[in-house]
Amino acid sequence: MSHAVAPRDPAEAVGQPKKAATAAWIGSALEYYDFFIYGSAAALIFPKVFFDESDPATATLLSLATFGVAYAARPIGALFLGHFGDRVGRKKIMVFTLILMGLSTFLIGCLPTRAQVGTLAPVLLVACRVLQGISAAGEQASANSMTLEHAPPHRRGFFTSFTLSGTQGGQLIATLVFIPVAALPEDQLLSWGWRVPFWASVAVAVVGYVIRRKLQETPAFAKQAAGAGVVKLPLAVLLREHWADVLRVIGGALIASVSTIFTVWALAYATSDSVGMSRSSMLWVGALANLVALAAIPLWASLSDRIGRRPVFLIGAVGSALAMFGYLWAISTGNYPLTLVLGIVAFGIVYSAANGVWPSFYGEMFSTRVRLSGMAIGTQIGFAVAGFAVTFAAQIAGPDGTDWSSVALFTAALCVPPVITGLSARETHRLPTELLGERAAQGASQPETVTA
Predict the structure, then answer these.
(1) 212-221 pLDDT, tens per residue?
(2) Does the predicted TM-score (pTM) go above 0.90?
(3) In the prediction, which pLDDT does 14 show?
(4) In which residue ranges of the chain is pLDDT below 70?
(5) What is the C-alpha to C-alpha distance for residues 79 and 83, in angstroms, rounded to an integer?
(6) What is the CA angle 43-122-64, rounded to 5?
(7) pLDDT at position 440, please?
(8) Residue 449 forms beta bridges with which residues?
(9) In the structure, how many helices (H) and strands (E) does the chain have?
(10) SS3 280
(11) Among candidates 110, 101, 125, which has minimal Cα distance to 206?
(12) For 170-282, where are the E strands, in sequence order?
């Protein structure tokens, strides 16, 4: 049976790249608003609400581990969502992931606490977190595929970067929401205040659904479905023709460790008794860094359209390894202005080089028939390691959680595989969209497809 999409009106097709980029930005912003409010709560709230307060260090470690649970679920979600995204289209997966994220996040805001139901509370928390992870597994891959396949060939970097600008926007919104929440009196914060940002996900799901339902399927997918047909088993074709690129994406995706260490572990470290910075002041570091990233990401991506994906990605990977030392050192001094400046430089500017270019860099490694599967599976395996990097960092920092230099060294080590990815990958920024991924498939047998 064919999965062909009806031909589009040429007038409607003209504005689709901008519509796709807007849908990716807004949808990703709303999606990652949900995802990152969990990170803030895991660092600041959940150790006291869902875990044993008599042992604060263990409670924090367990809370940060629940943050990583979603990343463990993401590779599993990627297998299923990648498969269906390459079978039925990008749009349907984008709508599904948004609804699932909104629902699971709302349910977290409704959960009973440990004081109310005992150990059942963290069990329910983990279950909801797994659903968040499954949703996130297909979100970026489907949005990236949608924008890349709608974009003009010479501006794929710029248009696909809107997905990552959206994630930074979502993180910014989440941080801004948490600033007044974190400023509440302790009893109000722990009783009802922390729930409000999670309940707001109902509006997230509704707005995102309306936006994404109006978006048309990509011309590349429509042409593939109407012509050769969609791949019957995308995973089999992916591993046969693109296994080396999947490994590259897995290695490259470890760059996300910089984000999780910055967003979660550094926040917990800075607000610990050993450093003593306030929750609100450190949340402002994240907010301003993300505000700068909103401008930096499309600029880096536009640069990659001119000079290539590889050099920009390498700037971000190498620079992030070095910048994390400066940022964590600044926190250790307790000097807030220094922490603010180095946080903006490390996360808002340097990390944005890799973050802004990877959607096009990874997506261009794969052909249309397996692009969503390749991006979803490759990134989510790498992101799974990045998610648990926070838990490892908490252990590496020692019993008192103050060994910041070991955490910085650990983060730098996780930047080595992305550097290898950047050095070994093909440069694709000048290739026509229809030829992307074809070199990897040369000499391979014709994949089994579903045709009319």
Answers:
(1) 887 788 888 8
(2) no
(3) 53
(4) 1-15, 439-452
(5) 6
(6) 25
(7) 52
(8) 231
(9) 24, 2
(10) helix
(11) 101
(12) 230-231
- Cα first-last separation, the chain: 5
**β-strands 449-450, 230-231 pairing:** antiparallel
pLDDT of res. 405: 94
- The count of residues in the chain is 452
Whether the CA torsion 391, 296, 14, 367 is positive or negative: it is negative
80 Cβ contact partners less than 8 Å away, ≥ 6 residues apart: none
Phi and psi dihedrals of 449, rounded to 5?
-125, 165
Q: pLDDT at position 357, please?
A: 96
Question: CB under 8 Å to 192, separation ≥6 — which residues?
Answer: none
- Sequence letter at residue 195: R
Query: Coil, helix or strand for 230?
Result: strand
How far is residue 299's CA from residue 26's CA, in Å, rounded to a whole number?
Answer: 19
DSSP letters of 68-123? Answer: HHHHHHHHHHHHHHHHHHHHH-HHHHHHHHHHHHHHHHHHHHHPPPHHHHTTHHHH
Write phi, then psi, for 230 (nearest 5 degrees): -75, 155
**Structure tokens, 58:** 């263990």
Query: What contacts 9, CB < 8 A, 6 or more positions away?
Result: none
Residues 32 and 24: beta-carbon distance below 8 Å: no
pLDDT value of position 439: 60
Nearest to 38 by CA among 114, 106, 90: 106
Q: Which residue has the tokens 């620079």?
A: 319
**Rg (alpha carbons) of the chain, rounded to whole number:** 21
Cα–Cα distance measured from residue 7 to residue 18, given in angstroms and rounded to the nearest whole number: 19
Contact yes or no for 327/339 (Cβ under 8 A): yes
> What is the C-alpha to C-alpha distance for residues 210 and 361, in angstroms, rounded to an integer?
29
The encoded tokens of residue 213 equal: 């339902």
pLDDT at 158: 95
* Region class of 51: left (phi > 0), else alpha (psi between -120 and 50), else beta: beta
> 190 is written with which tokens?
């722990």
Q: How far apart are CA 185 and CA 446, in angstroms?
A: 64
Residue 227 to residues 84, 281, 315, Cα–Cα distance (Å) = 18, 56, 40
pLDDT in tens, 401-432: 889 999 999 999 999 999 999 999 999 999 99
